[in-house]
Amino acid sequence: MELKLENVVKRYGSFTALDGLTVTFDTGICGILGANGAGKSTMMNLITDNIKRDGGSITFEGRDILEMGNEFRAVLGYMPQQQGIYDRMTALSFVTYMGRLKGLKGRLLREQTEQVLRLTNLWDVKHKAVGQFSGGMKQRALLAQALLGDPKVLILDEPTAGLDPRERVRIRNFISELSKDRIVLLATHIVSDIESIADKVILMKRGKLINTATPAELIASLPESWTPVAHYPSLEDVYLCFLGE
Amino acid sequence: MSEWKRVFFDRKRAVLFLLITVLCTVFFATSLVSRLEPGAVGDMIAAQKAVSELYSECRGRSYDEIAEICAEYESVIYNYTAFFSGSLPPEESDSFKEAEEAVAVHFPRFLSLGNERYAVMRFAGTALAGVYRVRDQAVYLSGYADYLNSVNEQAKRVSGVGIFQTSGGYTSKNIEKTAEDFSKIDGTKVSFDNSISLENWLGYDFADYFFLAMIIIIVLSFLDERKNGLWHTVRSCKNGRAVLGFTRVGILFVGSLVSTVLVYAIPLAVSCAFGGGLGDLGRPIQSLESFKLCSAVVTVGEWLCGYFALKVFTGILIGLFLWCLLGSLANAQFSLGVLGTLLVGEYVLYRFIPAQSSANVFKYLNLFSYVRISGLYTDYFNLNVFGTPINARRFMLTAAPVLAVCFALWAILMQAKRRPEGNKDILSKLSSVLNRFSDVFRARLTVGGWELYKWLIYEFGIIIIIAVVAVGGLLGFRGIFDSSLLKNGMYGAYCSDVEGVIDGSEAEYFERARESALYSANAGEALQAIDMLERKAEEIKQRASEGGFEPWIVYDVNYDIYFGSSSFSVQRLNAAAAIFFTVFLTAAIFVYERQTGVEYMLRSLKRGRNAVFARKVLISVLSAAISWAAVYMRELGDFIRFCHPKTFAAPVRNIDALASFPLNISIAQYLIILYAVRLVMLIFVALAVLLLSSLSKNVLGAYLLGTAVLVLPPMFTVLGLDAAKYFSFTIPVSSAEIMWKMGDGSLLHALPWIMAAAVGIAAAVYAKIKWCGRKKTAA
Questions:
Q1: What is the pTM of this model?
Q2: I need a surface site. Which of B109, B374, B578, B712 has the fewest CB within 10 A?
Q3: ipTM of predicted complex
Q4: CB contact under 8 A, A52 and B598
């Protein structure tokens, strides 16, 4: 499986959000690191076909995603950064509704709804209105809907933001398990999440790709002059060294 | 930013206040108009001016003299309009000139209307209604002393009746109390003066509901920090507890004062401007017929001052009560639902418990008693408080300050002491139980079912539908037919009688009718009517043989007053209402996803684009159909009930005005096309609303944009700004005007349909691109 972005350009007026981005995502977790405004969310919105690109191509298995249309969306799971959610729906209703929109029905829908709600620890509060949830619970509800339908491409924008450490580790491990047979794009500011589970990391700055490698390779690439923040150099040092301004 | 500034200078709240003020004033002005159509406002102003002059003329005179003066005004109107409603058209005779000179004194508008029969008759109706009100006021005042005596006598008489004599019983005490209260105003000298402005203003009930809406808006602003997740932050600030509570009580006072000025003082000023002022403020309040049952010793001026002060005070009281109630809920999510339930419950108790019921405490000790505070003065009733009759007005007014102090303390304590976390949340537990059951149903919903559910429940579609059905009931469907056009008062009766196929049997009918007419009192007119009808039958026969359709005698008037030229004004008003309904039913459909922030997530799903768009379009079609049914199915029902049409099978070309209609179809087919086209046109309106909805940022914005673009032009058209019809859907939605005019054979009249269809289809295409296509900017 391969999701390929080639020379992708996106401009907002005179501001260039993505400047000829070329990157290939394979099976496994790809962590995306970059400061605010680096172009992470723009890239995700382009992959989910929510915004119009100004140049380049995005292909999945060799086919342009715009030509694939619904075919591509059928294999896509997307968890957005904003916590936009139907406040008055219960968790069960919300996930069921999203399942319907993913084309699931009948027993399969019921089974998958229960599975993702249990997985995200929301099964016990499934009859509670989502609007009454805390930020972390809303985050889990959004993650639950992204997991429906066994997506081949999973795009997670800040999936662990607002979660307590125990939940974060649980979700992180779960994402790690999921990545065995699918492409997972994981954008986050919590560098330790990526360090422990990402197979590959891409560093983005001002709409451009700075570097792409495994976490270990990136840590090894730190210049000798760099003084680590922790006792041992970590991906956080990589972030500060390459992206810190 | 201070709390004062946050509440009063918030853009959204300011827009809502402005909108409520405008609606309140416009509704009041339209309540003074007999029919909402071009020229009616002018009629109202001219009639009110004449009535004002009538008051000046009557001031200081005896009631008999007033009755005579009113009769003179009346006869002036009748003498003039006789030339328009009778069998003869106005002509340059001496008697007509005399009538003209007479109306020129007090009703000069008649002259400016010239020979427009319809307009003259409409103004005559408005002017006569004004004169009758003055006359009725004089009759009321002349009998007021007798009425007071009768109350005392009745009390004595009833207390002598065996079943009421139980000493110490409530009924007996109530009779004694009533007599005692009314004895206080014994000998009150009611006096005659201009009361029309005050009576019009008092009769305008809607102001109370607009006032309540304003108070609710202010109270909801106190819950903003809870909804926005800022409660913890606000409480952690130095002045975020009791000081904020006191500030908010002050805000309620100013808010209530401002609301009182906006929804009561402005309409009163408008009423005085039209009606010629308030009259003598020193006369007893009982001088107004609305206060016939009032037992308070108070003058009009004192009552007005007291009323405004009371309004401000009750506004604070209502606000404090709602604030305490909603602020006590642990979950801000439920506040709107609880508020709605409370208002509906209280209103049902207020509206439906009879005043004589033993449970009338729930009727009077009710939120709406304070909302409709004037009712405490205009009605007289005693409450049964543990067997003791207590005057409802006195009880409510005494309770008000006590309640206000209690609620104020509660509100301030709540603001100071209530913590954002760890409160008992009974409602959430209850909703969880309800959700458990409703989730069983919701889990089975398809994508279309979900769209319908969201529309009905989350976007308050069900409440809007109820409102649409209720408001639809206020519409009228009949135009005013200018009967003088028939030139003969009996023609209609004969024509209606002989309706049917022209197959020779009508000749027999004419023969029989002639014979019986000879013995009637107005034989001349009857014979003339039969001759006219016979000529009409001949004309139709000839037209039918030339046009190749079956000849029928059809009583055209029925069709004219519902679908023809006599109804064009009514048709436009109803079309405007249908458009208004469609806008409010459809506006939230697209923008709701944007407001909740799920738009991008939905669009990344397999069925989140075309499938959802198609369902949303279907819901819009449904909303158009509901608007259509609320207006036009009522119209059809009214037409069938009122006219008992027997000629649906007749070819439409038998109707004179449709003699050259392009299609050779029956009247039933004509009506089916008319109603079907109206539905299609309303669907185009709904599609245009979809586009506006998809261009808006939130639901309120969609309502405002929809109103500005689609509702205001029809309203301007209805009010007589004819050019506005080119920028609105009024004429295509009405369709009656287009189809009636096509009776001259020209298909050019169909142009508004084509334009409306083009706009609707373009809007749908653009809305699809907006929903299914890509955005230029990020979320």
A1: 0.77
A2: B712
A3: 0.89
A4: no
